[in-house]
Amino acid sequence: MVDRPDVAMVVTPHPDDAEIGCGGTVAKWIREGTRVVYVLCTNGDKGTGDRDMTSERLAALREEEQAQAAAALGVEDVVYLRHPDGGLEDSAEFREQLVRAIRAHTPDTVFCPDPLRQSFYLHRDHRICGQVTLDAVFPFARDHLHFPNHLRVDGLEPHKVGEILMWGTEAPDTFVDITDTIDLKIAALLKHATQVAGAGSDRDVEEFVKANASRIGQRAEMPYGEAFRAIQYRR
What we know:
Blueprint: E1 7-12, H1 17-32, E2 35-42, H2 55-73, E3 77-83, H3 92-105, E4 109-113, H4 124-140, H5 149-152, E5 163-167, E6 174-177, H6 182-190, H7 193-196, H8 202-218, E7 225-232
Parallel strand pairs: 1-2, 1-4, 2-3, 4-5
Antiparallel strand pairs: 5-7, 6-7
């Protein structure tokens, strides 16, 4: 289990990844008083099998879907970085954007994908998003001489994050009971119409989400759960 933070940040590679990975936890914590900020790294402009779809149109659709999904969970602030889908790089530019967001919103807890996943769904953007988030949290956001213009020009103080929770991990050590918010997780996921349209009915999506959450929950003696690998930092 994990203590609820006052402020949490979700760094997500594509629209819909956050809802799949930690939507139930986000909804639960928001209900209990946590302020949650999303940082959406890419515009998701490649994720379609529709041969008539363009990247420009898809990016616009997926940004709107993400806004609706975030609202369904109670997230009020979404930062859109708008990198192209498949275009994340372990670069100073991307790292600076994440450090800026961390210093601006001062999260106690940061969510991201586990970059060390070795089996199913080895998406490049997920690996890079997770790795650059880890680096941005420690040591870059902590030390004022990294990106000093944040302080000198914008007045953004260095910030120490207390913990990272990584979803999609193969070695979970932290579980959150989402029994009371799994319906919100499902409702948020269904806002991503361009991604779930081929999954069948809304009932199919609901059954899939509940089956997965039930499997996770069994490991921690809870009806429905989400699982993470945690890294704790000294504050």
